[in-house]
């Protein structure tokens, strides 16, 4: 169901340079979210990565507002005295009135100021504030919903902070407050209800009702207009949360979402069409030489291979140099994140690889946190056996080297039969016997608390992927976030992603999708869908996404079985690529990172802020939206050389040698230069010309 394009819908050339009429010296920006200095989900990444750019634009007039969490503050925040006189008076007044408000710098890029509100300290006001919410807004919050109770406390404290700040300012201030998600949305509603002099923006990163409906196995996107939203929210006991979210969306001066697909969803579920789509970006660190990120890939892949040697000891009957690493990561939402369709596609891929007698092995990692009680003993044993084998090999190597050295010293060529004695052979035989294994390599690296009902393990039992020698597809389920201090797989998430060959994210519900975006900026190809914000964004801006390593799966207009077949086809084609073709594809994928840089995408937030200021303070600010018909955007062209997919790069003659493949027409620097000509370099409206040239 198409939504009419607004002027700024993900068309990167749609925003021209701003005029000097927007003077932000007398304006103050408060950005409010539950995930300020408090990592819960993707909104934390949005705010953290965007902070440096926003600080460049607003300077000392930018403040982030979030909840006070003592454990997070100890490691992430440096508490200081407020530098803004009005804000200092505001915090002193609130602290003397029974609140606990903290001020400091968040220790991330840009070092933004943060105002942290202790919601637990003001819990004594919860009943009074709930009564006020019911009397003024007719929204009732049940006592048992702790998350909603926190939202009430946080919302009233935020409105109190903004109202007190407006009162403490000597001159009439131009306050702009940007609220993220329903947990912060009540503060916006109260600002409008109390008629505070505050311009408001509300951004929904995913609608509450949409997430619940998609988890219920309904044909969500093709029936958006048919849902009785009040009944559906009530049936799921989230009506009070839905009311808070919908009220914030309706009351805001400017309403934004993170993607075009979420804009369609919000129009039907929240009953307001978003004013602007504000795609999520990342801080992209470009490499000076093309081979640098390829080297990082090789280093990280070697570390994953070490884990595989231990995990599959006794059954290491496949060539690691011809092994492809796939992975899926994120919240453990079996259907929403597409783990169900990924597993089914892996079973079909396993069949294709076996019947085609392929020498390629696929190892699929599932990085999804679930309830566990400890590491799997068999998994830990595998890493211990691998280390023991390595120590044995090192010992024998040292003894061999010493004998070789002594033989050469006396001017004699060594006799090979005397270089290894009986003791050496005994050590090696003992090491070989230690690698014998009676059971198959484990699927799960941890002991699951709900093993019999776990969705991933249940599906694996059904499709029969048990890591047997006959299977060309192996599965490793790691139900815990990755950490460089883990005794099992000592890598952080970024290192792990760099070491893999393909990220697979066939999500059914994914308003944006940071996981495939992170893959892209690290030069790792990925599978996304036309129901994710990232997938739609890339489809709009790339003429041939698969040639650039972005495979877009159709989950909206195809049945589940058809989508599964399409995903299987993507994976099978990827497995057929030569090593050189994968290198070419990674180079192309990494070049797309400019599209996801906040230097590009930050301009949409700039647009939203200017629009809100103009609506709230029409005497001081004027905003004229661009003509939608003049917004043409740009697209990455099809690559000049042959696409790296085997389906498109086969020779016309059936007889060709490997040498011919090496001469295939491809010049990385020439192709990159053509992309630079077609694509404008990132532009930030608040940096000078010198910054543009760097």
UniProtKB/TrEMBL annotation:
Listed GO CC annotations: cytoplasm
Glycosyltransferase listed as a keyword: yes
Domain of life assignment: Eukaryota
Coiled-coil parts of chain: none
Ranges of compositional bias, category Acidic residues: 659-672
Residue segments, region Disordered: 632-694
Pathway noted in the entry: Glycan biosynthesis; glycogen biosynthesis
Annotated catalysed reactions: [(1->4)-alpha-D-glucosyl](n) + UDP-alpha-D-glucose = [(1->4)-alpha-D-glucosyl](n+1) + UDP + H(+)
Gene Ontology biological-process entries: glycogen biosynthetic process
GO molecular function terms attached to this record: alpha-1,4-glucan glucosyltransferase (UDP-glucose donor) activity
Enzyme Commission numbers on file: 2.4.1.11
Pfam family, one: Glycogen_syn
Keywords: Allosteric enzyme, Glycogen biosynthesis, Glycosyltransferase, Phosphoprotein, Transferase
InterPro entries in the record: Glycogen_synth
Family named by the database record: Belongs to the glycosyltransferase 3 family.
Record's subunit section: Part of the GYS1-GYG1 complex, a heterooctamer composed of a tetramer of GYS1 and 2 dimers of GYG1, where each GYS1 protomer binds to one GYG1 subunit (via GYG1 C-terminus); the GYS1 tetramer may dissociate from GYG1 dimers to continue glycogen polymerization on its own.
Function statement: Transfers the glycosyl residue from UDP-Glc to the non-reducing end of alpha-1,4-glucan.
Protein name (record): Glycogen [starch] synthase
The gene coding this protein: OTOGL
